[in-house]
From TrEMBL:
One Pfam family matching this protein: HATPase_c_2
Name of the protein this chain belongs to: ATP-binding protein
Gene Ontology MF annotations: ATP binding; protein serine/threonine kinase activity
Keywords linked to the UniProt accession: ATP-binding, Kinase, Nucleotide-binding, Serine/threonine-protein kinase, Transferase
SUPFAM superfamilies to which the protein is assigned, alphabetical: ATPase domain of HSP90 chaperone/DNA topoisomerase II/histidine kinase (SSF55874)
Amino acid sequence: MQVERSSHPAPRPDPSAPDREGFRHSFCADPLSVRAALRTTLARFIRQMTEEEAGTLEIVLAEVFNNIVKHGYGDSGKGTITIALSRDPRGLSCLVSDEGIALPDRCLSGIGDHPRPVPDTLPEGGFGWFLIRDLVEDLQYSRHDGRNELVFHLPLAPLALAP
């Protein structure tokens, strides 16, 4: 399954590239590690974005990470989540990967097809995926060799304009 919101595909972050703007972090799939990973990731990019952009990044990553912990690994605390981010002129290109169960089709279906959902009518986790789809661009999901990869782009103000 591949889902896209934009006509400009998100460049995939290359975790092995020695880019001064790049970042890669792997952590255990448990709630405390998610909290620490969010702090580490935000600290790495905080000087390259506005406060509002940092809040958006935190919301998106928290939703993605917590969905992986809860649904991908079943709250077992076993497993690893890896994030790779790189800054480009339009914002942050993000790749989140894990070896949990495959993402159900319903999580990413319907982009642009439906108005903002009513939270009370959504299944467990449904509003989180709506937020993710609403806040990022170029959202793509793939699974190969037992690995999930979620790629997206978070638009940011040009570096010269960010405080």
